[in-house]
Amino acid sequence: MINKAMLTIRFNSSYVLIIITTFRQDFGMGESTSPGCPVKHTIQLFLLKCVYNLLKTGYNILNKTADKGG
Where are the beta strands (DSSP E) in 2-58? Predict the structure, then answer.
């Protein structure tokens, strides 16, 4: 069970770093080797800035289209 999730976005001159951190906690079911100790999972996604800008532009276009009612 995931009880906490955090999303961090960091900007750099050449890429965008998206860090997704989730904490998994064991509730005494014997699934973890260290009960009571949360397991930290980190996913890092590197996007080129041009790809990020393309996605951002597409998102803005979709929002403007939705605001006009289709």
Answer: 2-11, 15-24, 39-48
* Tokens (6 digits) for 41: 């999972």
DSSP alpha helix (H) spans, the chain: 49-67
Question: Identity (one letter) of the amino acid at 44?
Answer: Q
Residue 8 CA to its chain's centroid (Å)? 7
Task: For the chain, 70 residues long, give each residue's pLDDT as a single digit of tens.
Answer: 444 555 556 666 566 666 666 655 555 554 444 444 444 555 556 666 777 777 778 777 777 776 766 5
* Residue 14 φ then ψ, to 5°: -120, -15
This prediction's pTM: 0.27
Nearest by Cα to 6 from 18, 20, 17, 16: 20
Find out whether 39 and 24 touch, Cβ atoms under 8 Å. Answer: yes
